[in-house]
TrEMBL record:
Source organism per UniProt: Streptomyces alkaliterrae
PANTHER family in UniProt: 1-ACYL-SN-GLYCEROL-3-PHOSPHATE ACYLTRANSFERASE
GO molecular function terms listed in the Swiss-Prot or TrEMBL record: 1-acylglycerol-3-phosphate O-acyltransferase activity
Keywords recorded for this protein, A-Z: Acyltransferase, Transferase
InterPro entries to which the protein is assigned, alphabetical: Plipid/glycerol_acylTrfase
Name of the protein in its database record: 1-acyl-sn-glycerol-3-phosphate acyltransferase
Pfam family, one: Acyltransferase
One GO term describing the cellular component: plasma membrane
GO BP, one annotated term: phosphatidic acid biosynthetic process
Signal peptide: none
Domain Phospholipid/glycerol acyltransferase: 34-155
Length: 234
């Protein structure tokens, strides 16, 4: 009931205020498990994608979203709880990754939609970065659920990192055809297959988004940018 109320309230408000355009929504099944694998440009990605879908989408969200102080923190926590998002403590990287994978498998085993950002973090500059194989591939191979590539477009312009008040403009969402990896079901221990699966999904996201692809992890790119900024200040 809480999910339905939050979905109706916030989802309708977002659609009315921002009027997001959507292509390929017919590729999301009306029932049954599926993984929505999306690029990640903005904090608001986790708001817009669920808002345009009729079905509930469960993302694994970092625990800070549920515990941040202030009015924004309380509103954020209420939204994520209301739409059924799952908090994961990221203070221990390995433990967090395992918890996220277990949560994703449980969501899919219930026949629901599981959302994931294969890049692992938001893009620091609007480009598409290499997907991390651990989360997406392990969940897909453990469950046999289809993977649906998703491209969020222009959401980084609405709410760049550090900006509290969003800019009113139309974001876009392109949803690709489901990718079937069921032939590899149960082979989540094979690193070659995990890497190949992830790269195939990222290629489809790149085609949908039109982003420039960078063959490195976004976390490494963020470190490089931070180090460069530090050197400029010295």
């Amino acid at each position: 009931m809480l999910y339905g109320a939050m979905k109706l309230s916030i989802g309708n408000s977002l659609k009315l205020a921002f009027r997001p355009w959507v292509e390929g929504i017919e590729h999301v099944p009306a029932e049954g498990p599926a993984i929505l694998a999306s690029n990640h440009l903005s904090f608001s990605d986790s708001f817009f994608l669920p808002a345009v879908l009729d079905r509930k989408v469960t993302f694994v969200a970092k625990a800070e979203y549920f515990t941040s102080p202030g009015v924004k923190g309380k509103l954020t926590a209420a939204f994520f709880k209301g739409v059924g998002q799952l908090p994961v403590d990221r203070s221990g990287a390995r433990g967090a990754a395992e918890a996220a994978i277990r949560s994703g498998i449980e969501v899919l085993e219930r026949g629901e939609l599981f959302g994931i950002y294969p890049e692992g973090t938001r893009s620091p500059d609007g480009r598409l970065y290499r997907g991390k194989p651990g989360g997406l591939a392990r969940v897909a191979l453990a469950t046999g659920a289809p993977v649906i590539p998703v491209a969020m477009i222009d959401t980084e312009k609405i709410q760049p990192p550090g900006k509290v008040v969003p800019k009113l403009m139309r974001p876009g969402i392109r949803i690709g055809k489901p990718l079937d990896f069921s032939r590899y079901h149960g082979m989540d221990g094979d690193r070659f297959i995990m890497r190949s699966l992830t790269d195939e999904v990222m290629y489809e996201i790149m085609k949908l988004s039109g982003q420039e692809y960078v063959d490195m992890y976004a976390t490494a790119a963020k470190r490089q940018l931070a180090e460069a900024a530090k050197r400029r200040e010295e």
